[in-house]
Every structure is written in C-alpha cells, then in structure tokens.
Amino acid sequence: MNESQERVVLNAEETQGLKYSVRPADENQFSSFKMGAIKHNFQHHPLMQMDKLQSLAEYLMPLEQCRFVAPDLQQDSVFFHYGKATDGRDLDEFFRRIEEPESWLALYNVEAHPDYQAFVEEVIDTVRPQVEREQGNIFIVNGFIFISAPPSVTPFHIDRENNFFLQVQGQKRITVFDNLDREVVSAQAVEEFIVNRNLDNVRLKKQYVDRGCEFNVGPGDGVYFPSTSPHMTRTTEEWVSPGAGVSVSIGVVFYTEHTRALAQVHQCNAVLRRLGLSPRPPGTNTMLEGIKRPIGKALAEIKARYRGYNPPPGAY
Question: Which strands make up the sheet holding 172-176, listed edge to edge?
Fold first, then answer.
C-alpha cells in the first residue's frame, strides 16, 4: 500500500505525538522557483477531518469566505464563484449531501479562524528553511480549502502567492504550467493581475494544454508551484466508493521577498506599458530589474497615497 492509499483518519491513539511535515518527493530536485511533487502527512491532522471542516465552514460563512460554483463549470470557464450554493442548499444540507456529484465548496482565508491560522503556520514551518534559503523571508501565509465531489473542476487561473498544495482526502488531478511560459499566459496578463487584480486575459488556450504537467494526487501527495504558475484541477469518478466520494485539498500559500520583488517589477512595467513601451517581464534581465524594483515600489506607494489605489496583498 502506498502513501496515496493510506487511511485518511487515524484514531486518537495513532495521532498522539504524530509529527506532521511536508517534504519534496525528491529532495535533490526541489527548488522554490519550480513546480514539483511533494509528500506530506497532514491528511491525518485533526483539523483536516470532515467534522472539523464543517465547523470551519460555519465559522467562515458569516465572513463571506465560503464560496460555491455553478455545476456546469469547465476548466476553461471564467473562475466565478458565489456566496451561496447555486442549488439553494444551506451549509448543513450541503455537508449532508456532500458526496452528490458536482458539489463544490471553497473555504477562503481559513487563517481567519485561530486554529487554522496555527495550522497554516505549522505547514509552512516544515518547509520554511528550504524556501527562505532561496527566496528570502516568508510573510502573509493564507490557506484555501477545496471540498468537492466528482465530477468537478477548478478552472484555469493564476495566483500571486507561492503554493504548497496538499491533497488530504480522495483523489484529484492538478495540472500546472511553467510560470515563465509567456505563451500560456502573456506577460501583460500576468502584470494586470498582479497590479490590478484583473484575470480577464488569463484564460486557458487549448493549443497549449499539453504544456501542463498533470499530477495525480491522493492523501499524502501534493504539488508545490511558485507564484503565477497557471493551474487547474479536476476530479473524476473512478476512485469513488460508498462513503468515500469527496476530494479535500488545501493550498497553503505565501509571499516572500522574491515574490514582492517581482510585484515591484510588474508595477514599473505597467507604467512603462502605458507610455507605449514593451517592457521585459520579470526573470529576463536581473540588472534591469534591480533598477525597476525601487521605481515600482515608489510608483505603487504614490498611487496608494494620492490616487486611492488599493493594492493587492504582497503587491509591493
């Protein structure tokens, strides 16, 4: 039996004193600048069990941090979600019928709950040395939990943060693309998202689907991918059995000094682009980026102070 086939829930005696950790699937190949498979044992953590997740959802619902999607969502759809289940279910009914096909619930910013704030920090602390050695200090750690019954998808999108994506229950297929592939997502589209929260031009291009790397993950598996890596997920039905038909995963995401430096370059490039220039995206000229970073930071501070700019977290 491999780690993906382990039981999700251990009894109290088995979990007592269990040390939780995240580790690269291949220690010699891991880089915080590249996607890669990871392993973990957080599927056994008490806070990752369904009763605790339902309590968390009840806590987050009044904060408008429970998100639902329409049942006809596709991987190339606009990633639009709602504050209530589209079929009218309340939370109690949603969890009672959680194994019904296309049930999909995301719990956003779970660190709003004190127990889950400690949880996401616990996850990051197990990988902090490897990441900070390459990218500098970690800051603003968030958690996003996805609960779904197949068939279901999370559409193609990008995020600002680096992501340790952990599968804790059921099976899922996550496809991740190179964050530096400017044909999959253009430099301007990334820039618009980093600077202005605009995902309008971040859409799946079917001619480039084969460029993605698909990871089949089960409990104890996961994927690490850096900031702005395009990704999408899907759950299919072949692994489902009575009483075991729900996929649960958590993305523990975070910023670093490196992601902030990239955001500063994007801020500068956005202004250069408005002046009619075609600036080079981050990652193409280290010397030039050393000049752009302080300019981008200053421009963002001026916009925030005098023009009502509401910068995304970690934007500068």
Answer: 152-157, 231-235, 172-176, 213-217
Helices (H), 197-312: 257-274, 286-306
DSSP notation for 69-132:
--TT--TTS----BSS-TT---HHHHHHTTTSTT-EEEE--GGGSHHHHHHHHHHHHTTHHHHH
Residue 16 is encoded by which pair of tokens? Answer: 């007592």
Whole-angstrom distance, CA of residue 249 vs CA of residue 166:
6
Contact predicate 130/30, CB 8 Å: yes
CA angle 95, 65, 195 (to 5 degrees): 140
Residue pair 38/224 in contact by the 8 Å Cβ criterion: yes
Mapping DSSP to helix (H, G, I), strand (E, B) and coil, where does residue 315 land?
Answer: coil
Quote the crossing angle between the two packed helices 257-274 and 286-306, to the nearest 10°.
80
Q: How far apart are CA 162 and CA 35, in angstroms?
A: 10
Q: Residue 54 and residue 162: Cα distance in Å, rounded?
A: 26
Residue 308: phi and psi, rounded to 5, are 70, 20
What is the rounded distance in angstroms from the CA atom of residue 61 to the CA atom of residue 91? Answer: 9
Q: What is the pLDDT of residues 45-90, one digit of tens each?
A: 999 999 999 999 999 999 999 999 988 899 999 998 999 999 999 9
pTM score of the predicted model: 0.93
Quick: pLDDT tens for 151-170. 999 999 999 999 999 999 99
List CB contacts of 279: < 8 A, sequence separation 6 or more. 268, 269, 272, 273
